[in-house]
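Hello,

Following up on my earlier ticket. Below are the two sequence lines again, exactly as submitted.
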Amino acid sequence: MLPLKLEALGFAAGGREIIKSITCEIHSGTRTVILGPNGAGKSVLMRLCHGLLQPTAGLVTWMQEGAIRRVRRQAMVFQRPVMLRRSAMGNVIYALKLAGIAAEESRLRAEDVLEAVGLANVATRPARVLSGGEQQRLALARAWALGPEVLFLDEPTANLDPNATRDIESIISAIHASGTKIIMTTHSLGQARRLGDEILFLSDGQLVERASVEIFFRQPQSLEAIAFLRGELP
Amino acid sequence: MNDLSQALAAATHLVVSADANLLVIVSRSLQVSFAAVLIAAAIGLPAGAILATTRIPGRQAVVALLNALMGLPPVVVGLLVYLLLSRAGPLGELGLLFTPTAMIIAQAVLITPIVAALSRQVIEDAWREYEEQLRSLGAGTMAAAITLLWDTRFALATVVLAGFGRAAAEVGAVMIVGGNIDGVTRVMTTAIALETSKGDLPLALALGIVLVAIILSVNLLAHWVKLIAQRHYG
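Thanks for your patience. The regenerated structure is below:
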Protein backbone atom coordinates (compact mmCIF):
# COMPACT_ATOMS: atom_id res chain seq x y z
CA MET A 1 0.00 0.00 0.00
CA LEU A 2 3.05 2.25 0.16
CA PRO A 3 4.11 4.79 -0.88
CA LEU A 4 1.82 7.06 1.08
CA LYS A 5 1.29 10.30 -0.81
CA LEU A 6 0.32 13.57 0.82
CA GLU A 7 -0.70 16.25 -1.63
CA ALA A 8 -1.14 19.82 -0.40
CA LEU A 9 -2.55 18.29 2.76
CA GLY A 10 -4.20 20.75 5.08
CA PHE A 11 -6.24 20.58 8.25
CA ALA A 12 -8.00 23.38 10.04
CA ALA A 13 -10.13 23.26 13.17
CA GLY A 14 -11.78 26.02 15.15
CA GLY A 15 -10.53 28.64 12.69
CA ARG A 16 -6.91 27.61 13.20
CA GLU A 17 -4.75 26.02 10.51
CA ILE A 18 -3.00 23.11 12.17
CA ILE A 19 -1.52 21.49 9.05
CA LYS A 20 -0.57 23.83 6.23
CA SER A 21 -0.24 22.35 2.78
CA ILE A 22 2.11 19.44 3.31
CA THR A 23 3.23 17.55 0.22
CA CYS A 24 5.44 14.50 0.47
CA GLU A 25 5.77 10.79 -0.22
CA ILE A 26 6.51 8.25 2.47
CA HIS A 27 8.12 5.05 1.27
CA SER A 28 8.43 1.57 2.66
CA GLY A 29 11.49 0.18 4.39
CA THR A 30 12.69 3.15 6.39
CA ARG A 31 11.58 4.15 9.84
CA THR A 32 10.14 7.62 9.59
CA VAL A 33 10.21 9.87 12.64
CA ILE A 34 8.08 12.99 12.70
CA LEU A 35 9.84 15.53 14.86
CA GLY A 36 8.95 19.03 15.90
CA PRO A 37 8.11 21.29 18.82
CA ASN A 38 4.86 20.97 20.76
CA GLY A 39 1.92 22.18 18.72
CA ALA A 40 3.72 21.71 15.41
CA GLY A 41 0.95 19.36 14.27
CA LYS A 42 2.77 16.01 14.56
CA SER A 43 -0.13 14.08 16.08
CA VAL A 44 -2.66 15.66 13.76
CA LEU A 45 -0.56 14.80 10.71
CA MET A 46 -0.40 11.20 11.85
CA ARG A 47 -4.15 11.03 12.44
CA LEU A 48 -4.73 12.43 8.97
CA CYS A 49 -2.50 9.74 7.48
CA HIS A 50 -4.18 7.00 9.51
CA GLY A 51 -7.64 8.23 8.57
CA LEU A 52 -8.87 9.22 12.02
CA LEU A 53 -9.19 12.81 10.83
CA GLN A 54 -10.47 13.99 7.47
CA PRO A 55 -8.31 16.56 5.69
CA THR A 56 -9.89 19.96 5.14
CA ALA A 57 -7.61 20.47 2.14
CA GLY A 58 -5.54 18.26 -0.12
CA LEU A 59 -5.30 14.51 -0.29
CA VAL A 60 -3.95 11.47 1.52
CA THR A 61 -3.57 8.57 -0.90
CA TRP A 62 -2.27 5.07 -0.49
CA MET A 63 -1.37 2.74 -3.30
CA GLN A 64 -4.13 0.22 -4.02
CA GLU A 65 -6.84 2.05 -2.15
CA GLY A 66 -9.21 -0.89 -2.63
CA ALA A 67 -7.03 -3.31 -0.73
CA ILE A 68 -7.26 -1.22 2.43
CA ARG A 69 -10.99 -1.54 2.56
CA ARG A 70 -10.76 -5.30 2.44
CA VAL A 71 -8.11 -5.94 5.05
CA ARG A 72 -6.89 -3.52 7.68
CA ARG A 73 -3.35 -2.86 6.53
CA GLN A 74 -2.43 -0.13 8.96
CA ALA A 75 -2.53 0.17 12.72
CA MET A 76 -1.85 2.84 15.29
CA VAL A 77 -0.56 2.90 18.84
CA PHE A 78 -1.45 5.92 20.91
CA GLN A 79 0.38 7.84 23.59
CA ARG A 80 -2.08 6.56 26.16
CA PRO A 81 -2.94 2.90 25.58
CA VAL A 82 -6.69 2.29 25.57
CA MET A 83 -7.38 -1.12 27.05
CA LEU A 84 -10.73 -2.84 26.98
CA ARG A 85 -12.14 -4.41 30.14
CA ARG A 86 -11.07 -7.91 29.28
CA SER A 87 -7.89 -9.93 29.59
CA ALA A 88 -4.62 -9.02 27.89
CA MET A 89 -5.20 -11.91 25.50
CA GLY A 90 -8.82 -10.79 25.05
CA ASN A 91 -7.66 -7.36 23.92
CA VAL A 92 -5.48 -8.83 21.17
CA ILE A 93 -8.19 -11.26 20.08
CA TYR A 94 -10.72 -8.42 20.00
CA ALA A 95 -8.63 -6.54 17.43
CA LEU A 96 -8.15 -9.68 15.33
CA LYS A 97 -11.85 -10.44 15.41
CA LEU A 98 -12.66 -6.93 14.19
CA ALA A 99 -10.18 -7.52 11.38
CA GLY A 100 -12.15 -10.60 10.40
CA ILE A 101 -9.58 -13.21 11.47
CA ALA A 102 -11.01 -16.62 12.39
CA ALA A 103 -11.13 -17.57 16.09
CA GLU A 104 -8.59 -20.38 15.96
CA GLU A 105 -6.08 -18.33 13.99
CA SER A 106 -6.66 -15.37 16.35
CA ARG A 107 -5.77 -17.39 19.40
CA LEU A 108 -2.54 -18.66 17.88
CA ARG A 109 -1.53 -15.21 16.70
CA ALA A 110 -2.38 -13.65 20.06
CA GLU A 111 -0.29 -16.23 21.92
CA ASP A 112 2.65 -15.64 19.59
CA VAL A 113 2.54 -11.91 19.83
CA LEU A 114 2.12 -11.83 23.62
CA GLU A 115 5.13 -14.11 23.86
CA ALA A 116 7.07 -11.77 21.57
CA VAL A 117 6.41 -8.71 23.75
CA GLY A 118 7.04 -10.61 26.99
CA LEU A 119 3.47 -10.65 28.26
CA ALA A 120 2.73 -14.37 27.96
CA ASN A 121 2.75 -14.69 31.75
CA VAL A 122 0.02 -12.08 32.20
CA ALA A 123 -2.11 -13.10 29.21
CA THR A 124 -5.12 -13.93 31.35
CA ARG A 125 -4.89 -10.88 33.63
CA PRO A 126 -7.36 -8.02 33.08
CA ALA A 127 -5.60 -5.58 30.76
CA ARG A 128 -6.51 -2.46 32.70
CA VAL A 129 -4.76 -3.55 35.88
CA LEU A 130 -1.43 -4.04 34.10
CA SER A 131 1.27 -1.41 34.65
CA GLY A 132 1.62 1.50 32.22
CA GLY A 133 4.60 -0.11 30.52
CA GLU A 134 2.85 -3.45 30.22
CA GLN A 135 -0.24 -1.78 28.80
CA GLN A 136 1.82 -0.03 26.15
CA ARG A 137 3.55 -3.31 25.27
CA LEU A 138 0.11 -4.87 25.00
CA ALA A 139 -1.00 -2.03 22.73
CA LEU A 140 2.00 -2.78 20.50
CA ALA A 141 1.19 -6.49 20.57
CA ARG A 142 -2.41 -5.76 19.62
CA ALA A 143 -1.30 -3.68 16.65
CA TRP A 144 1.45 -6.12 15.66
CA ALA A 145 -0.91 -9.10 15.70
CA LEU A 146 -2.82 -7.48 12.85
CA GLY A 147 0.29 -7.83 10.71
CA PRO A 148 0.02 -4.25 9.46
CA GLU A 149 2.03 -2.99 6.55
CA VAL A 150 2.28 0.38 8.27
CA LEU A 151 2.31 1.07 12.01
CA PHE A 152 1.76 4.59 13.32
CA LEU A 153 3.08 5.37 16.79
CA ASP A 154 2.14 8.61 18.51
CA GLU A 155 4.64 9.39 21.27
CA PRO A 156 4.59 5.74 22.38
CA THR A 157 6.88 6.24 25.37
CA ALA A 158 5.79 9.69 26.53
CA ASN A 159 4.38 8.45 29.84
CA LEU A 160 6.91 5.74 30.61
CA ASP A 161 10.01 5.36 32.76
CA PRO A 162 13.41 4.55 31.17
CA ASN A 163 13.12 0.78 31.65
CA ALA A 164 9.69 0.58 30.11
CA THR A 165 10.86 2.90 27.34
CA ARG A 166 13.73 0.55 26.52
CA ASP A 167 11.29 -2.38 26.29
CA ILE A 168 9.01 -0.45 23.97
CA GLU A 169 11.89 0.65 21.74
CA SER A 170 13.15 -2.89 21.32
CA ILE A 171 9.65 -4.08 20.42
CA ILE A 172 9.35 -1.29 17.85
CA SER A 173 12.67 -2.43 16.38
CA ALA A 174 11.40 -6.00 16.23
CA ILE A 175 8.21 -4.89 14.48
CA HIS A 176 10.31 -2.96 11.98
CA ALA A 177 12.53 -6.01 11.48
CA SER A 178 9.46 -8.11 10.75
CA GLY A 179 8.81 -5.90 7.72
CA THR A 180 6.34 -3.31 9.01
CA LYS A 181 6.85 0.30 8.03
CA ILE A 182 7.21 2.45 11.16
CA ILE A 183 5.95 6.03 11.22
CA MET A 184 6.24 7.63 14.63
CA THR A 185 6.29 10.89 16.51
CA THR A 186 8.48 11.54 19.48
CA HIS A 187 9.69 14.51 21.45
CA SER A 188 12.82 12.64 22.51
CA LEU A 189 15.80 13.37 20.28
CA GLY A 190 17.61 10.33 21.67
CA GLN A 191 14.70 8.14 20.64
CA ALA A 192 14.59 9.74 17.19
CA ARG A 193 18.27 8.87 16.74
CA ARG A 194 17.88 5.35 18.11
CA LEU A 195 14.77 4.40 16.18
CA GLY A 196 14.69 6.62 13.12
CA ASP A 197 16.09 6.32 9.64
CA GLU A 198 14.67 9.56 8.34
CA ILE A 199 13.26 12.66 9.98
CA LEU A 200 10.30 14.71 8.89
CA PHE A 201 10.67 17.97 10.76
CA LEU A 202 7.46 19.90 11.31
CA SER A 203 7.17 23.43 12.52
CA ASP A 204 3.95 25.39 12.81
CA GLY A 205 2.04 22.93 10.63
CA GLN A 206 4.56 22.92 7.83
CA LEU A 207 7.06 20.32 6.71
CA VAL A 208 10.20 22.41 6.87
CA GLU A 209 12.86 19.75 6.56
CA ARG A 210 13.25 16.16 5.55
CA ALA A 211 16.54 14.32 5.88
CA SER A 212 18.16 11.11 7.02
CA VAL A 213 18.69 10.96 10.76
CA GLU A 214 22.43 11.30 10.35
CA ILE A 215 22.26 14.42 8.24
CA PHE A 216 19.44 15.98 10.23
CA PHE A 217 21.34 15.86 13.48
CA ARG A 218 24.70 16.77 11.96
CA GLN A 219 23.71 19.47 9.54
CA PRO A 220 20.17 20.68 9.93
CA GLN A 221 19.29 22.99 7.06
CA SER A 222 16.33 25.04 8.26
CA LEU A 223 16.52 27.76 10.87
CA GLU A 224 13.62 26.13 12.72
CA ALA A 225 15.40 22.79 12.98
CA ILE A 226 18.64 24.43 14.09
CA ALA A 227 16.79 26.33 16.79
CA PHE A 228 14.88 23.22 17.82
CA LEU A 229 18.01 21.08 18.12
CA ARG A 230 19.87 23.77 19.99
CA GLY A 231 17.05 24.31 22.41
CA GLU A 232 16.31 20.68 23.02
CA LEU A 233 19.70 19.02 23.20
CA PRO A 234 20.86 18.39 26.72
CA MET B 1 -45.90 7.19 70.01
CA ASN B 2 -47.66 4.20 71.47
CA ASP B 3 -49.48 3.71 68.17
CA LEU B 4 -46.20 3.62 66.34
CA SER B 5 -44.52 1.12 68.62
CA GLN B 6 -47.62 -1.12 68.57
CA ALA B 7 -47.75 -0.92 64.80
CA LEU B 8 -44.05 -1.61 64.58
CA ALA B 9 -44.36 -4.70 66.76
CA ALA B 10 -47.27 -6.00 64.69
CA ALA B 11 -45.43 -5.20 61.48
CA THR B 12 -42.33 -7.05 62.65
CA HIS B 13 -44.53 -10.03 63.45
CA LEU B 14 -46.02 -9.96 59.95
CA VAL B 15 -42.58 -9.87 58.36
CA VAL B 16 -41.05 -12.53 60.59
CA SER B 17 -44.01 -14.89 60.26
CA ALA B 18 -43.98 -14.39 56.47
CA ASP B 19 -47.66 -13.44 56.43
CA ALA B 20 -49.35 -14.89 53.33
CA ASN B 21 -51.11 -11.66 52.40
CA LEU B 22 -47.83 -9.78 52.73
CA LEU B 23 -46.01 -12.29 50.56
CA VAL B 24 -48.56 -12.06 47.76
CA ILE B 25 -48.20 -8.29 47.67
CA VAL B 26 -44.40 -8.32 47.83
CA SER B 27 -44.00 -10.96 45.14
CA ARG B 28 -46.46 -9.18 42.82
CA SER B 29 -44.46 -6.00 43.32
CA LEU B 30 -41.15 -7.67 42.49
CA GLN B 31 -42.67 -9.45 39.52
CA VAL B 32 -44.06 -6.27 37.99
CA SER B 33 -40.97 -4.13 38.59
CA PHE B 34 -38.62 -6.87 37.44
CA ALA B 35 -40.50 -7.31 34.16
CA ALA B 36 -40.60 -3.53 33.69
CA VAL B 37 -36.87 -3.18 34.26
CA LEU B 38 -36.17 -5.99 31.78
CA ILE B 39 -38.12 -4.15 29.10
CA ALA B 40 -36.51 -0.84 30.01
CA ALA B 41 -33.03 -2.39 29.80
CA ALA B 42 -33.76 -4.11 26.48
CA ILE B 43 -34.80 -0.78 24.97
CA GLY B 44 -32.86 1.75 27.02
CA LEU B 45 -29.35 0.24 26.92
CA PRO B 46 -29.08 -0.08 23.12
CA ALA B 47 -30.75 3.31 22.72
CA GLY B 48 -28.23 4.85 25.10
CA ALA B 49 -25.33 3.19 23.28
CA ILE B 50 -26.46 4.32 19.85
CA LEU B 51 -27.17 7.82 21.06
CA ALA B 52 -23.69 7.97 22.61
CA THR B 53 -21.79 6.80 19.55
CA THR B 54 -23.62 8.37 16.62
CA ARG B 55 -23.31 11.95 15.52
CA ILE B 56 -26.66 12.43 13.86
CA PRO B 57 -28.19 15.90 13.53
CA GLY B 58 -30.66 16.60 16.30
CA ARG B 59 -28.84 14.33 18.70
CA GLN B 60 -28.52 17.05 21.30
CA ALA B 61 -32.27 17.62 21.19
CA VAL B 62 -32.93 13.93 21.74
CA VAL B 63 -30.47 13.85 24.64
CA ALA B 64 -32.11 16.89 26.22
CA LEU B 65 -35.57 15.38 25.76
CA LEU B 66 -34.44 12.10 27.28
CA ASN B 67 -32.94 13.86 30.27
CA ALA B 68 -36.19 15.77 30.72
CA LEU B 69 -38.19 12.55 30.50
CA MET B 70 -36.27 11.21 33.50
CA GLY B 71 -38.39 13.51 35.61
CA LEU B 72 -41.67 12.27 34.14
CA PRO B 73 -44.33 12.35 36.90
CA PRO B 74 -45.56 8.78 37.52
CA VAL B 75 -49.21 9.83 37.79
CA VAL B 76 -49.06 11.42 34.36
CA VAL B 77 -47.52 8.28 32.90
CA GLY B 78 -50.26 6.32 34.62
CA LEU B 79 -52.88 8.58 33.13
CA LEU B 80 -51.47 8.27 29.60
CA VAL B 81 -51.21 4.49 29.80
CA TYR B 82 -54.73 4.44 31.26
CA LEU B 83 -56.04 6.40 28.27
CA LEU B 84 -54.25 4.04 25.88
CA LEU B 85 -55.59 0.89 27.52
CA SER B 86 -59.07 2.00 28.55
CA ARG B 87 -62.08 0.53 26.71
CA ALA B 88 -62.34 3.56 24.43
CA GLY B 89 -58.59 3.88 23.97
CA PRO B 90 -56.56 2.71 20.95
CA LEU B 91 -55.40 -0.45 22.75
CA GLY B 92 -58.64 -0.98 24.64
CA GLU B 93 -59.47 -4.18 22.80
CA LEU B 94 -56.55 -5.94 24.45
CA GLY B 95 -58.39 -5.70 27.77
CA LEU B 96 -55.18 -5.01 29.67
CA LEU B 97 -56.41 -2.28 32.00
CA PHE B 98 -56.31 -3.28 35.68
CA THR B 99 -53.97 -6.20 35.01
CA PRO B 100 -50.33 -6.67 36.07
CA THR B 101 -49.40 -6.29 32.38
CA ALA B 102 -50.76 -2.75 32.39
CA MET B 103 -48.63 -2.00 35.43
CA ILE B 104 -45.56 -3.42 33.72
CA ILE B 105 -46.21 -1.22 30.70
CA ALA B 106 -46.62 1.88 32.85
CA GLN B 107 -43.45 1.24 34.83
CA ALA B 108 -41.50 0.41 31.68
CA VAL B 109 -42.60 3.72 30.14
CA LEU B 110 -41.53 5.46 33.30
CA ILE B 111 -38.04 3.98 33.61
CA THR B 112 -36.96 3.39 30.01
CA PRO B 113 -35.96 7.08 29.66
CA ILE B 114 -34.04 6.80 32.92
CA VAL B 115 -32.09 3.75 31.77
CA ALA B 116 -31.50 5.28 28.33
CA ALA B 117 -30.39 8.68 29.63
CA LEU B 118 -28.09 7.34 32.34
CA SER B 119 -26.54 4.69 30.10
CA ARG B 120 -26.06 7.29 27.36
CA GLN B 121 -23.98 9.29 29.85
CA VAL B 122 -21.94 6.27 30.97
CA ILE B 123 -21.30 5.06 27.42
CA GLU B 124 -20.49 8.49 26.07
CA ASP B 125 -17.81 8.94 28.72
CA ALA B 126 -16.30 5.60 27.73
CA TRP B 127 -16.62 6.47 24.03
CA ARG B 128 -14.58 9.60 24.60
CA GLU B 129 -11.78 7.42 25.90
CA TYR B 130 -12.12 4.60 23.34
CA GLU B 131 -13.15 6.36 20.15
CA GLU B 132 -9.80 6.76 18.41
CA GLN B 133 -8.62 3.30 19.37
CA LEU B 134 -11.81 1.60 18.21
CA ARG B 135 -11.95 3.54 14.97
CA SER B 136 -8.28 2.76 14.40
CA LEU B 137 -9.08 -0.93 14.77
CA GLY B 138 -11.81 -0.52 12.18
CA ALA B 139 -14.89 -0.75 14.40
CA GLY B 140 -18.04 0.66 12.82
CA THR B 141 -20.76 2.37 14.84
CA MET B 142 -22.55 -0.89 15.57
CA ALA B 143 -19.44 -2.79 16.65
CA ALA B 144 -18.35 0.18 18.77
CA ALA B 145 -21.75 0.39 20.48
CA ILE B 146 -21.67 -3.31 21.35
CA THR B 147 -18.08 -3.09 22.60
CA LEU B 148 -18.95 -0.11 24.79
CA LEU B 149 -22.04 -1.83 26.22
CA TRP B 150 -19.88 -4.77 27.22
CA ASP B 151 -17.02 -2.67 28.54
CA THR B 152 -19.26 -0.52 30.73
CA ARG B 153 -21.32 -3.50 31.89
CA PHE B 154 -20.71 -2.91 35.59
CA ALA B 155 -21.61 0.76 35.48
CA LEU B 156 -24.67 -0.19 33.42
CA ALA B 157 -25.68 -2.76 36.02
CA THR B 158 -25.96 0.07 38.53
CA VAL B 159 -27.99 2.06 36.01
CA VAL B 160 -30.43 -0.81 35.60
CA LEU B 161 -30.65 -1.31 39.36
CA ALA B 162 -31.40 2.40 39.77
CA GLY B 163 -34.22 1.92 37.29
CA PHE B 164 -35.50 -1.03 39.29
CA GLY B 165 -35.45 1.02 42.48
CA ARG B 166 -37.44 3.78 40.85
CA ALA B 167 -39.99 1.30 39.49
CA ALA B 168 -40.46 -0.52 42.77
CA ALA B 169 -40.88 2.70 44.76
CA GLU B 170 -43.34 4.30 42.36
CA VAL B 171 -47.02 4.48 43.33
CA GLY B 172 -48.93 6.86 41.07
CA ALA B 173 -48.74 5.01 37.78
CA VAL B 174 -49.49 1.51 39.06
CA MET B 175 -52.36 2.82 41.17
CA ILE B 176 -54.06 4.30 38.11
CA VAL B 177 -53.54 1.49 35.61
CA GLY B 178 -53.57 -1.40 38.08
CA GLY B 179 -56.43 -0.33 40.25
CA ASN B 180 -54.98 -1.84 43.44
CA ILE B 181 -57.14 -4.98 43.19
CA ASP B 182 -56.54 -7.31 46.10
CA GLY B 183 -54.54 -10.38 45.06
CA VAL B 184 -54.23 -9.24 41.45
CA THR B 185 -52.75 -5.79 41.05
CA ARG B 186 -52.00 -4.81 44.62
CA VAL B 187 -48.32 -4.01 45.06
CA MET B 188 -46.35 -2.71 48.02
CA THR B 189 -46.71 0.97 47.28
CA THR B 190 -50.42 0.91 46.47
CA ALA B 191 -51.09 -1.32 49.47
CA ILE B 192 -49.24 1.06 51.78
CA ALA B 193 -51.33 3.97 50.50
CA LEU B 194 -54.54 2.02 50.93
CA GLU B 195 -53.83 0.45 54.32
CA THR B 196 -52.67 3.75 55.72
CA SER B 197 -55.89 5.44 54.68
CA LYS B 198 -57.87 2.51 56.09
CA GLY B 199 -55.96 2.74 59.35
CA ASP B 200 -54.33 -0.72 59.12
CA LEU B 201 -50.98 0.65 60.16
CA PRO B 202 -49.25 -2.66 60.96
CA LEU B 203 -49.65 -4.02 57.41
CA ALA B 204 -48.72 -0.64 55.90
CA LEU B 205 -45.65 -0.44 58.10
CA ALA B 206 -44.65 -4.05 57.42
CA LEU B 207 -44.83 -3.37 53.69
CA GLY B 208 -42.88 -0.17 54.22
CA ILE B 209 -40.15 -2.07 56.01
CA VAL B 210 -39.91 -4.63 53.22
CA LEU B 211 -39.91 -1.95 50.54
CA VAL B 212 -37.17 0.03 52.20
CA ALA B 213 -35.16 -3.15 52.76
CA ILE B 214 -35.44 -4.03 49.07
CA ILE B 215 -34.50 -0.56 47.87
CA LEU B 216 -31.55 -0.43 50.26
CA SER B 217 -30.26 -3.84 49.25
CA VAL B 218 -30.59 -3.03 45.58
CA ASN B 219 -28.53 0.11 46.06
CA LEU B 220 -25.96 -1.66 48.20
CA LEU B 221 -25.73 -4.39 45.57
CA ALA B 222 -25.20 -1.78 42.88
CA HIS B 223 -22.44 -0.14 44.85
CA TRP B 224 -20.83 -3.47 45.63
CA VAL B 225 -20.91 -4.69 42.02
CA LYS B 226 -19.16 -1.53 40.91
CA LEU B 227 -16.56 -1.73 43.64
CA ILE B 228 -15.65 -5.36 42.99
CA ALA B 229 -15.56 -4.80 39.24
CA GLN B 230 -13.34 -1.77 39.59
CA ARG B 231 -10.91 -3.66 41.76
CA HIS B 232 -10.85 -6.60 39.39
CA TYR B 233 -11.01 -5.02 35.94
CA GLY B 234 -9.67 -1.51 36.53
